[in-house]
Every structure is written in C-alpha cells, then in structure tokens.
Amino acid sequence: MRVLLFCTALLLSVQPNISAQEQEFTDHGNGLIYSDTTMGQLHRIVDSLNLRFKTCDLNPRYFALAQTVGYWVHLEANVEEAAAFLEKQPTYEAFLKKFPSARTDSNLLVVRRIVNNEDNGKKFVEFEGWPGENAGSLEIPFEPNLLNNEIGLVFKVDPANKWRKYAMLSAWFFKSPFEHRQLPAEYARLVQYVDCMIDTTTTTYLSDLDWSWHDTDSEPLPARKAFFAYVDPPGKQKPGKKFDWEKQQEWLKKRAENIENNLSKTEEFKRLLAAAVEEAIEGKKPAEELEVWAGRYLSPKKELQLKRVRRVRGTCSMDESPRIHALEIAQLAAATTSWEVFLRSHLDIMNDRFSRMTDGSYAWGRRGTYIRELELLGIEVPDLLMGSCLRFDDPAPNHYFANVSRTGRALSESQQYPEVENRLKNAIADPTLDDFNRLLLWYLYDNMTHWRAPEAETKEEQVKIHAEINRQQEPVRNALPPYIVARLDK
User: Fold this and answer.
1) How confident is the model at residue 23 (pLDDT cuts 50, 70, 90)?
2) Dihedral class, residue 77 (left if φ above 0, else alpha if ψ from -120 to 50, else beta)
C-alpha cells in the first residue's frame, strides 16, 4: 500500500508540457548536468581517447550473429507424437501435413546466439525470430550440435505444470544454412570505437545484486555498528506500527547537526567512518547513510565507490530514484575523472537501463537523454551510438549494447541529425551488412524520425504527421530485404 500511495503521489506531481531535459535534473547554470570545470576535465580525456583510437588496428574483425530464414511452429495437442516425428527430421511441409492444427509463421529472420542464464549460470542457445512481437523464440540447453550451421530444425517441449495443464511444443524449421558473416570494415570500426571509449574491463556497479531491496541490519557488520553507536543520539525509533515520521526527521536532523558541529572534528569519528566505509566496499554491502559522509569527510572517490556498491530498483514508473542514483554516480565519476565509470553511468541514463517493478510508457517522455553533454565533450557521438546498436558474436566482456529505441530518441536530439540520418539510410540499404543489423538500424531510424517529429496539438494533426513520417520512411524501409519488408508491412 505504501508503494502504491508513493507512486500515485509521484504521478499526480508530474506537470504536462514541460520538456524532460528542463524538468528532470537540475543543471549547473550552463544548461548541462555537469559543471563547466568537470566538462573541461572530461574533454581532455576524450581528446586523448580519440587520438588513441586513430592508432588502433585499422582492420578489426567482428562477426555478425549467425542467422537464416525459417518457419515457426507451435503445437498444443499430440505433443508427444509430434516430438517423436520431429526426431526423424521431417520437412516443414511434411510436419504441417501430419499436424495441420499447428500454428505457424513463415519467412522469419532467425538469429542464433549463446546466452547465459543469470539466475542459474547455465548456458543456452537461443533461436529468436524477427521482426514482430510474436515472431517466436526458443532457448535450448547448450549442446555443441546446436551451433552446426547446417542444422535443419530445432524444437522444445514444455511439459504440463500446475499453471498449465497441457504440454506445448515449439519448433523452428530452417530454409537454408545459418550464415555467419563478417562485419564490413565500416561497421567494425564503429564497434571498435565503442570499445575504445567504453572500458570493457569495468562495470558501473561493483555488485550485480539489487541491493536497494536488501536488508543489512541483521548482518554482522561490526565496523558499521561501531560507527552508528558513536554518532547516533538517544531516541532512535524502531520500525513498527507506532513509527512517527516527523519525530524521526527531527532525530535525523539532530544527529546531522551533531556530526557537523562536533563529532566530525574528532579523530575517532574519522577512524570509525573510514572503517565502516571500507567494510561496506570490501564486503559489497550497501550503506546509503554513509555515502554523503564519506564524500564530505573522507573523499569523493570513497563516496563514488560506496554508491557503486548500491543498485537502486524503482518501485514504479514514476519513481526516478534509479536515474537520480545513476546521475550521482556519473557526476562523482566526472568530478574525480573516473572516465571508465562516468561514460557507462551517463549512457545508462541515456538508455534508461534500470530495473523497475513496473514501467508504463506514460513515464518515458520525461526521462531525458542528455546527448548534448556527450556532443560537447568531443565524442564522435554518431559512431558511438550507432556502434552500440550493432549486434555481433563473441563481444568483449562488458561491451556496451545500447537500447535501440532510447538511442533513436537521443539521436533525434543530436546536433548532427542530418549526418546520422544519411548514414542510417545508407546502412539499412547496404547488402554487405547482415540482415539482422540492417533491421536493427531500421528500428533505430524509425524511432529517431518519430521522436524528431513536431508535437501535434490535435488528433487530426497527429494523424497527418504520422502519415507524412511513414511516407518519408517508405523508401528507407523498402531498401531492406524483401522478406523483412513483407513482415514489417503486416
């Protein structure tokens, strides 16, 4: 109930007709979310990285994800018989003749990739259909033969369970062998630029867990307990039904004033704080209360390390705490010239790469992209963002893959929009680039052009604007392979 009331209050507080960039974060008097001094420091780092990139291997080799064209089949009756029949490797036509009730979808782009299950660490081979929301996807436990490019079909049986009283069978039939095409040099350089700018040996957070939902009060953290025993005045309330919020705020204010005016001047305070902070960082135990004190009385770098231990999960669509936390990380990383953390955190904000319990589309518009900051730093933004939208096999650990729709919105705000538009048109029509990446770049172009469109004041005006966008997009879409165009037209 508390989460529901909190989210409702946030929703009611949103004011319409205010741009996300103006509303979301406070700027530094320069229209940016970083100070002029910080921007200058970061610009020098970018200059150095751009020079280093020019001396990189001029012929990097990257391979597109394996892909082919296939037929999707789904069956919820006679599953055992169908599975036995598929073991004989029948043709697609023979299967449909024997099981005419099967639901099918034809001429889909099928992309194969190896995925790791984050929950159990197991490896799977995924066969994913494109385009379309219901284009079909299979994840099958890894076996080497699944990577055979000549494989004719794959299938999976999902047995009945307590939620579904019947078994299901899903299968892919492949029209031709999988193709594993090398990325042309022009696109390989984009991927290389991404890895040059975004350190692949670093992650934004020092822990993969959603620590914002983790209670550490019951854990043995002696240094933290010793610190709070030293700074906490009498009268601290325990959580419960009789918890008095106003009384708690007064208590917190009293503690903060005592720390600022008295305790912070003692060596004991600094010793206990340093020990508690090190305990949190080394053990990867979040300590939100310690973060500000670490920055104020130890160093900004210690505060940055503490914030990187804590991941924040949003309670609902209107809860901006994950984005605020990421901004604080980006600002601290920028101020301490921790480039490897800064750019990742800034891109997380741009891509809205955060976990939320729910996330309605009505909240997306007010979340800014902050592409201007990257352009002013001297980053080759078209290269960085287009490169981060390309997908390829065997990426470097922690390679940054962008969200295509959010990146499209960011590019719609770019000062280099005409250049990006032309480059995307050429790439979408390029037969030397694999079909999957051409399709992804089409989605990027589609999102970019729709976000670029003027706002409509009436429904009639909105219809006209969308019709004009679709008219302008048509020759670009038609430059895709015909079987993909046919799917997009459905």
Assistant:
1) low
2) beta
